[in-house]
Amino acid sequence: MNLQVKVLLLAASASGLAQPVENGKQLTISDGLTPTEIVMRAVDVANHSREEEHDLLYEFSEETISEQFDTAGHLSEREITLSKVYPLAGALYREVIAKNGQPLTEKELERERHRKDEAHNRRKRGEQEKENHRIRFDRELVDRYHIKLLEEQRVGGRPVYTVWFEPKSNSLPVRHRMDYALNKSHGLILIDKKTFQVARVEFELIEPVRLWWGILGRLHTVKGLIERKPLADGIWVGQGLDFSMNIRIFFKVINTRRRTKFVDYQPVK
């Protein structure tokens, strides 16, 4: 899976985000590369993966645990969804196959068939997926942030560059709805030193974000984690997502967490 992901499908707990000075020595250059050069190489690698459609080479299983909490932080609702993810008309498609350990009912199966047919027809017509809830790792995104290089870490036994990012200003451009949150977020990007693939991203909201000038509500907290890994053939894929959010919409407070695991990668036949 590439780094273009739907935030609503993330699920997170990126607690304990490292601070650039307190928890790690800040560096200005590593292996002859500046922090910006390291991140831009990672952007180029991500662009190449998109162009080569590496995300369409495999099908896999996806398990998502969605949880809702009350105002006291107690669990009020929990659902486990199992899906098969595979290419459909030039893009990945998620087909739900079970909920809470049980097969879908006939009504749910019919709804899934209808949803799949709609997606297939929409893609055949060349209609683009909506971008409002997507994060795309590209130069336009990177240009929003100050970038600092911290001491090297290891992820999955592999050495990685550790990059801290934070917004350059309080008046960054807003082109999509997700930009309201992205412009107020900071965190870490861990980049594999050998391949310049992004191995992990941790982020959190710095301060609350008003929705529709505060009339609709307020996004109080967001914490997220994205993890990736290489397969035997060197292709990097999604490993897990973790996303938590506290939001007020009118007079209703929503406190939610979603965790997703990607497993059983198989080459597309």
- Contiguous low-pLDDT stretches (5 residues minimum) are 1-24
Using only CA atoms, what is the Rg?
Answer: 19 Å
Largest beta-sheet details: 12 strands, antiparallel
Number of helices: 4
The number of distinct β-strands equals 14
| Strand-pairing-aware structural class | alpha+beta
SSE order, one letter for each helix or strand: EHEEEEHEHEEHEEEEEE
Beta-strand content estimate: over 45%
Shape: globular
Could you say how many structural domains there are in total? 1
Q: Please give the share of residues in helix.
A: 10-25%
Rounded mean pLDDT score: 86
Q: What's the oligomerization state?
A: single chain
Question: What layout of secondary structure does this protein have?
Answer:
Layout (H helix, E strand, L loop, with lengths): L4 E2 L28 H17 L6 E12 L5 E14 L2 E9 L2 E2 L2 H19 L9 E2 L3 H4 L2 E11 L2 E10 L11 H4 L2 E8 L5 E8 L3 E3 L5 E14 L5 E14 L2 E16 L2
In short:
The chain has four helices and 14 strands. The protein is globular. The chain has about 270 residues and is of the alpha+beta class.
Explain the overall architecture.
The protein is an alpha+beta fold and 269 residues long. It has one domain. The chain has four helices and 14 strands. The strands form two sheets. Strands 2, 3, 4, 5, 7, 8, 9, 10, 11, 12, 13 and 14 form a twelve-stranded antiparallel sheet that branches. Strand 7 and strand 8 form a beta hairpin. It is globular. The two termini are 17 Å apart. The N terminus is likely disordered.
